Amino acid sequence: MLHKTQGIVLSTFPYSDTYSVTQLYTRDFGRVSYLLPKARGRKTKFSPSLFFPLTVLYLEVEHMPLRDLQRIKEATRQFPLYDVNTHMTKISLAFFLSEFLSRLLQESDHNGLLFDYLKNSVETLEAADRGVANFHLAFMLGLTRFLGIRPNMDDPGKNSYFDLLNGEFTRHMPLHSHYLNREQSAFLLQLHRMHYGNMHLFRLSRSQRNMIVDYLLEYYRLHICDFPPLKSLKILRGLA
Q1: Which backbone phi and psi does 102 adopt, to 5 degrees?
Q2: φ and ψ at 154, to 5 degrees?
Q3: Proportion of the chain in helix, strand, coil states, percent, rounded to 5
C-alpha cells in the first residue's frame, strides 16, 4: 500500500550488489528501513546525495505489514542543505547526530511533535552562523523533552548534586556512581538554559563541550534501553 509522508535520513549502508538500505525517521511510521536501488551510471532513480545524513524528504513509500525492509517509490528534498553538506563543523555534527538518532530512536516510535523538532533542528543547523559548535548540546538537551526523559531541573539550593540516574538534584551525595559533583551540577544548572536562540552566548572550551557530551550520553544510556557507544564521537571531539 502506498503512503505519502515525510522523512529525515539517519543512515545509509550497503545491502547487496544492487541495493543499499537507508534508515529514515518518518512522520507517520517512526524509524523505518527502506531498500534503495544503487546508482548505476546515469540511469538512477535516486541520487545518492538525496540520502546525505539529516536530509529532509517528501516521500511516497510502500509499506507492507511484517516486512522488515520497505520500499521508496518517490523521494524529493524539502529544502537544500548547502552548509550542512560543505561546512566541516556542520558535516561533523550531521554525522554525529544522525548516528545518535539511529541508535536512539526505535522502530515503534511514532511522534509528530518529535518529527517537527528534528526537522526544525535541521533547518536551524543549516541556517546557523553563530554558536554552531554548541548546536549538538542544545539539540541533545532539547530532545529529552520529546522522549519523555526530561530531567527535573528544580534546584534544591547550593552545594547540591545532580543525580543522573533519577534525573534530579539532591542535597546528598547519591549512593551510586551516576551523578555530577557539586561544581559540575552548578554548571549544568546554567547549561540547561541553552537553546538554539542563545547557544552563541555560551563560551565553552573544547574540553568543556566534550565533558558535557560525555555526561549527556551517560544520561541517555541510563534512560534509554540498549543505547550503545557512538563511533562518530571521536570525529566530533576533534572538531569541537
Answers
A1: -60, -40
A2: -65, 120
A3: 40, 25, 35
How is residue 154 written as a grid cell? Answer: 528544580
- Residue 97: Cβ within 10 Å count: 26
41, three cell numbers: 551510471
Maximum Cα–Cα distance across the chain = 65
- Residue 90 vs residues 82, 85, 95, 130: alpha-carbon distances, Å: 10, 8, 9, 12
CA–CA separation, 238 and 232 (whole Å): 10
Q: What is the pTM of this model?
A: 0.93
- Single out the residue of 19, 26, 214, 42 nearest to residue 106, CA to CA: 26
Domains in the chain with CATH codes: 2-151+192-239 (2.40.50.140)
Strands 30-37 and 70-77: parallel
According to DSSP, the residues that pair with 201 across neighbouring strands are none
Give percent of the chain with pLDDT exceeding 90: 72
